[in-house]
Amino acid sequence: QVGILDVDLCGPSIPRMFRVQDNDVHQCDSGWVPVFVDQDKSISLMSIGFLLEKPDDAVVWRGPKKNALIKQFVADVAWGDLDFLIVDTPPGTSDEHISTVEALRPYKPLGAILVTTPQAVSVGDVRRELTFCKKTGLRVLGIVENMSGFVCPHCSECTNVFSKGGGEELAKYAGVPFLGCVPLDPQLSQSLEEGRDFIQEFPKSAAFPALTRIAQHISDAASQQSS
Amino acid sequence: QVGILDVDLCGPSIPRMFRVQDNDVHQCDSGWVPVFVDQDKSISLMSIGFLLEKPDDAVVWRGPKKNALIKQFVADVAWGDLDFLIVDTPPGTSDEHISTVEALRPYKPLGAILVTTPQAVSVGDVRRELTFCKKTGLRVLGIVENMSGFVCPHCSECTNVFSKGGGEELAKYAGVPFLGCVPLDPQLSQSLEEGRDFIQEFPKSAAFPALTRIAQHISDAASQQSS
Prior knowledge:
Mean pLDDT of chain A: 94
CATH class of the largest domain in chain A: Alpha Beta
Helix content of chain A: 25-40%
Shape of chain A: globular
Radius of gyration of chain A: 18 Å
Strand content of chain A: 15-25%
Largest interface: A-B, 57 and 56 residues
CATH superfamily of the largest domain in chain A: P-loop containing nucleotide triphosphate hydrolases
Oligomer: homodimer
């Protein structure tokens, strides 16, 4: 049982990635019922995207209003018995991040996964996020380098569109695990775009082994913690 | 005379893009002195990046603190006589955006330039930003599609890594000008990475004509307004 909580309140993208953007959330006795993605009800989502009347509605909210909703998303959603709760945050180290860490503290979160692109500009942002994790006592499970190299589907040559290696270097520098590089992969972005099941449809895609390795890494970290 | 104000307080990237990340700002009688990029002092910058002691310092700030600094950045910096003030915001429609629009209202800002990538997920975010501009009475100067197609340097074939056309469609739908597509260009990202002058060094790059066209469009909009 996996819950996915989208705390990117101004840019909720998780509902579309799972092709459930037209669903609504309902109330039950134990709170808001999250949206289930599959028939087995093994993956449930909560996002402000489900609460907007129209998809173009802008969430013009200052911090305090965001903080109140994030608390509700953690406490007032009928998540049920979850094995994992995955929280997707926007970039930064502000209201969404502080409120999420505070709301989850009683549940002893396993840790944070930091995602960078290879460029120094992006690595700089993630260095600041590392400092945030240190300050708030959140363990860093590892760093992922996204958009790392593009393999041309015509000639199979790889080009490092945004340079390369920034994520791995940063992991070494910070003494945290490097979880791997996810290449720029048109099949992956197409899947996210159309809410299709990448794992089922593109097992031979370049991003597939990279994503599998990252998932394995995190699942290992989780079983170490619980043992 | 151009001023550039970086209100991405948790992820200030402008100083590095101009290779002045080691500069400090000083006080003078008329306020903070911005950092000048060139010898002619025609481009001046202000960013929280100049105020941090160490580059890894995390700005763990909730909204109200961010709002206060943005007001200071507009009112208490000795910008001098500017032809343009360009404000770079993080994604979203929250504290940084509301505070910037409020602080600049007395100066009658020309408008907003919205940047999307081609995917539906990103276009969805920018649709919400369009609603924000409407609500706050900010004119939309136009929409730019970034990361739009990649021309392989080995075989010259173009691949639309993140699909294509989302920005142009959105501009049509919203009835605002489409300013053009900026391709994924390793020379552009390398320039931003190393703080080099893209315009001087790579006039034959694929992104060059796209950027020129966008600049021309904006400068035309500005002269129309002032005439």
